[in-house]
Amino acid sequence: MLSERRLEVLRAIVQDYVGTEEPVGSKALTERHKLGVSPATVRNDMAVLEDEGFIAQPHTSAGRIPTDKGYRLFVDKLAGVKPLSSPERRAIHNFLDGAVDLDDVVGRTVRLLAQLTRQVAIVQYPSLTRSTVRHVELLSLASARLMLVLITDTGRVEQRMIDCPAPFGETSLADLRARLNSRVVGRRFADVPQLVQDLPDSFEGEDRGTVSTVLSTLLETLVEETEERLMIGGTSNLTRFGHDFPVMIRPVLEALEEQVVLLKLLGEAKDSGMTVRIGHENAHEGLNSTSVVAVGYGSGDEAVAKLGVVGPTRMDYPGTMGAVRAVARYVGQILAES
């Protein structure tokens, strides 16, 4: 266990290195921070921190920089989440408040996160596997042609055209709409197949074929739309941090192009809690020089998707964590009100 003084020295090193981009020496630490000890004591503390693997010397006669282990301790023990200012909170609210549909919400969220954090922003679309049915609408387009509209609790809207095996009257259509919604509204997508499997048997013989066709289309829609989707933005922000990557930025950009990698990154975030993965804690080799800050968002207590940012390990962790958490909260409110 490190002493409180050495923890404070580590905190000061991280803050200075993030702010100045320069290795930090003992003299600079004592001048910038009220550590209450001499430069010689700070040098001794830095030697201990280096021996323990929390900081490293990038080259001879230089100051020290945090290692992945040092950043981890900083995040776990020393970094409070920085609250956003009133203007920042208003900016988030105003930017997201005008969204017209789910695609617009996700697009605005990506741009906002990238602007607030100056990192790469990733936003996962709400997962239908965790969503519930808000409403199923059936509209008659012709005597034997219908439109199915599926609306989720997270604002996703899916439409399908249905060619019926026989004409289907308005009375039968209204009956099917009412019975279908009475069974599935408020229920999880995964539960829908079992809830509707016996529905055709409750209709007269001439209507059963159409009811079965409608249900088949509904279930196909649920299967088709379970594929995870996400949106990424702010990749150009990484060019500002070229010197933060040990060899070149290319492996990072290549990793960010692989959706399965990004989904795995976000998937490691806990449902509602915040997750910070630093450097080599990221399984993908191309992201070993980056940190990922992610959190779940949703319309209620349970997260239906994740959002977060990717940037260099030399990151303003308190500010980034505060921005990510605040944006997730606002997106959740929008989904709850949609």
Give a description of the structure.
The chain has 338 residues and is α+β, with helices and mostly antiparallel strands. Helix content is 45%, strand content 17%. It contains 12 helices and 10 strands. It has helices spanning 4-20, 26-32, 39-51, 68-78, 86-97, 102-117, 170-184, 192-196, 205-224, 250-256, 259-267, 317-337; strands at 55-56, 65-66, 120-124, 133-142, 145-152, 157-163, 230-233, 274-278, 290-297, 305-312. Strands 7-3-10-9-8 form a 5-stranded antiparallel sheet, sandwiched between helices. A hairpin with a 4-residue loop joins β5 and β6. α1 crosses α4, α2 (26-32) packs across α3 (39-51) and α5 (86-97) runs parallel beside α12. The longest helix has 21 residues, at 317-337. The model has no long low-confidence stretch (mean pLDDT 85).
What characteristics describe this protein?
3-stranded antiparallel beta sheet, 338 residues, 45% helix, alpha+beta, 5-stranded antiparallel beta sheet
Concise description?
The chain has about 350 residues and is an alpha+beta fold. Helices cover about 45% and strands about 15% of the residues. Strand 1 and strand 2 form a beta hairpin.
